[in-house]
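User: Let's play a game. I give you a shape written as tokens, and you guess the letters that built it. Ready? Here's round one.
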């Protein structure tokens, strides 16, 4: 194991495995959203270059401490690995380092948990310097718990005279170098965060409100962002198409302006390391004056919104006012663009289609009602809104 190849170049699905099959494992622990979770799992895997050979299902009351799945299910997985000549098994669950090692020993192939899969996708999507640093930091933190892989034959050595072998020394060296790299990444991200804070203070002095787009991944946030701001942010119909935060100025009227922020989409059980690594990026959300919570008009909105709100709570953004934007009404038969108001006449939801532009005028109307004050936009520093 060569530790200090950069994690981004050491992804689970490299060029050599483009045509290799993978076996997926999805176990049901009395999850009421089991089918939705599996659909999302398949979408995640399809976001990579992997070819799905089969999906192994199972039902348990609790995970097995040694293999996560039961021994009988592990044998079934092994049969599928041999039948499809698979090079990788992916669990739609978070595995402990010891569970990964035990499974790899029995299955005789690589085993990846949900967190490792998401990290791999993030490594592929990151484009900006900051985004790549954030992903690498999350990968290294994840890797730090798995350094023992490859050195298990020395686990019982206690380091007495004649007992300290080169493998153990290498393991200690790897850990030290990894910790050094993590500190270096944190230092570099701290500088980026300082620049962001400077830009944020400039906007606050100019009294320019920030509106942040949030929501589950693949809800159409970047498409909406492009339509509202005439930007050219990358948008695609796939999970985590956007990782890098983008800020653009948006005019509501000739003398009224705000700053629109496009952010990374959320997902069920978003790895804690990713939330932590992207904390500086997500500060734009925490300090926003309003959150546009984008949901899919025809989807199970309440369930997906609850997952987003959980992440917002983790980053301290749960107290920021929200306006629900029900997107993709063009995919429904009977819905038209409209505004929903509460008993006090305050707008609570906007129904629109970012793709066709239907209802965008209603969203601008809603924003004008939220921010009626006349704003002086000549004080905005263009270098911090880019």
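Assistant: Ready! My guess for every position:
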């Amino acid at each position: 194991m060569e530790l200090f190849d950069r994690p981004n170049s050491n992804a689970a699905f490299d060029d050599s495995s483009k045509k290799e099959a993978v076996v997926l494992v999805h176990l049901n622990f009395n999850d009421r959203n089991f089918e939705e979770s599996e659909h999302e799992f398949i979408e995640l895997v399809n976001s990579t270059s992997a070819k799905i050979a089969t999906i192994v299902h199972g039902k348990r009351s609790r995970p097995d401490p040694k293999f996560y799945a039961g021994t009988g299910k592990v044998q079934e997985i092994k049969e599928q690995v041999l039948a499809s000549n698979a090079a990788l098994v992916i669990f739609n669950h978070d595995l402990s380092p010891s569970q990964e090692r035990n499974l790899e020993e029995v299955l005789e192939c690589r085993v990846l948990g949900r967190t490792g899969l998401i990290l791999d996708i993030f490594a592929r999507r990151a484009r900006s310097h900051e985004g790549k640093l954030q992903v690498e930091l999350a990968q290294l933190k994840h890797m730090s718990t798995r350094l023992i892989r490859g050195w298990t034959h020395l686990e019982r050595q206690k380091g007495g005279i004649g007992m300290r072998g080169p493998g153990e020394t290498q393991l200690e060296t790897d850990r030290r170098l990894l910790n050094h790299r993590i500190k270096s990444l944190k230092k570099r991200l701290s500088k980026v965060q300082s620049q962001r804070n400077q830009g944020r203070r400039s906007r606050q002095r100019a009294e320019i409100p920030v509106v942040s787009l949030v929501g589950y991944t693949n809800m159409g946030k970047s498409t909406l962002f492009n339509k509202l701001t005439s930007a050219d942010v990358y948008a695609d119909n796939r999970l985590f198409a956007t990782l890098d935060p983008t800020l653009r100025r948006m005019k509501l009227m000739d003398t009224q302006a705000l700053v629109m922020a496009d952010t990374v989409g959320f997902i069920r059980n978003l790895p804690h390391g990713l939330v932590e690594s992207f904390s500086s990026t997500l500060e734009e959300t925490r300090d926003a004056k309003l959150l546009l919570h984008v949901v899919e008009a025809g989807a199970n909105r309440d369930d997906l919104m609850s997952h987003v709100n959980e992440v917002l709570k983790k980053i301290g953004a749960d107290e920021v006012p929200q306006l629900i934007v029900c997107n993709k009404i063009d995919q429904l038969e009977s819905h038209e663009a409209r505004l929903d108001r509460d008993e006090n006449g305050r707008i609570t939801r906007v129904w629109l289609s970012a793709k066709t532009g239907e209802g965008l005028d209603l969203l601008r109307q809603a924003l004008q009602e939220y921010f009626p004050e006349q704003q002086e936009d000549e004080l905005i520093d263009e270098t911090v809104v880019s």
